[in-house]
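anyone seen this seq b4? input:
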Amino acid sequence: MKLAGRLVLLLAAWGALTAQREPVLVPAVSQSLIEVRQGFTGARLLLYGAVVDPQSGGRAGDYDIVVVLKGPTAPVRIREKERILGIWANAGSSDFRSVPSFFAVASSRPIGKIVDERTAAIYELGTDFIQLSPSGQIDPEEQARYASGLVELRRRQGLFQENPGGVSIAEKVLYQARIDLPSTVTTGKYTAETFAISRGRVVASATARIEVVKAGLEGQVVTAAQRWSFVYGLGAIFLSLGMGWLAGRLFARS
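predicted toks r here
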């Protein structure tokens, strides 16, 4: 019912949008708030909306749609392991300032058939084009190798995804895409960027916001730790001391 109601609102907005000259995207998302509780196994997001071209009577025309869902970014250091005298040890490392905790791309066709590499890099239309912001002085080829290793690692973890053909377009107007969030997803604010592309050029874009939060007992613990950090720290210390004392008493009796 909620999805149907939102589609009605999208259709009702067309009258106002047709006053524009350029194509307009009207995005929506099935869940703007995702609660992570105990036993959370992941979530499936439905990202949908409409692309309206006023010059063609409200129909979208022959456009491709690309949806990019990106999670909070954080600095990451990736290390390379090397076997030395039969022991695995750290052989080198590279730092990246801005690595998204989650990154997924869904498109109506493979990205290589929609835009050239330059446009894909500008809008980050694919895991090969994520702007990781490397830091430090390192050989460019070495840095590219570390970046490739980081992306491959996140892919195996299900945190970096690509789904060519993952966007369906109905009647050249309405589009929808489904993106799966794994159970290991990071909490925080997510952005879902939608791009309408025609003849290799981005002609319209829009952004929807999604927030992933901890709920239940875990959420209460996180909130307490953030609001009363000093008291929370003291409580953790006393709890550790108490557990140690209790364990010592139990072992002494046995």
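Residues 215-254 form one domain. The CA atoms of residues 197 and 248 lie 67 Å apart. kinda curious what u guys think
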